[in-house]
Every structure is written in structure tokens, then in C-alpha cells.
Write a structure and sequence with these properties.
It is a single chain. The chain has a domain of about 40 residues. Helices cover about 55% and strands about 0% of the residues. The radius of gyration is 21 Å and the shape is elongated. The relative contact order is 0.06.
């Protein structure tokens, strides 16, 4: 498909663009992941688990959310 044809489909806004896009290699900028290991005391892990259960999310999500909130306050 030519770029002009894709532009026209987008501009008209009447057709779903998804079938015309290759999503197999899409990456969100600034969202690269780097694994880190952190050791927490048992009491802290237990508290994180309680909060995760309360919120219905994983422990990892609690940690990432809390760290992101703190970074937003500092930056």
C-alpha cells in the first residue's frame, strides 16, 4: 500500500487502521525494560503482598507503581 493511500484512510477516519499496520515489531519509546534484583526484608515483602492482594495486582506492580509515584514527586 502506498503511503498516500494509508494517509487517506487515516484522514477519513472511517476505517480501522490495524489491518494495514505491522505490529510485530512495535516498541514504545522510553519503555525498554532492564531487570534488576533487589533484596527486601521479609516484613517488607509481606507488606507488599498484603497491598497487592488489597489492590488485586501483583507484588511487582505495587513496587513499580510506588517507585514511579516517588520518582514523579522528586523529578
Amino acid at each position: 500500500m502506498r503511503a498516500e493511500d494509508l494517509d487517506q484512510i487515516f484522514d477519513e477516519g472511517i476505517e480501522d487502521m490495524s489491518p494495514h499496520l505491522d505490529m510485530s515489531s512495535v516498541r514504545r519509546p522510553g519503555r525498554a525494560v532492564k531487570r534488576v534484583n533487589v533484596d527486601f526484608p521479609v516484613w517488607m515483602v509481606e507488606s507488599l503482598d498484603q497491598e497487592a492482594i488489597r489492590l488485586g495486582i501483583t507484588r511487582q506492580s505495587v513496587i513499580k507503581t510506588w517507585i514511579a509515584e516517588r520518582i514523579d514527586k522528586v523529578v
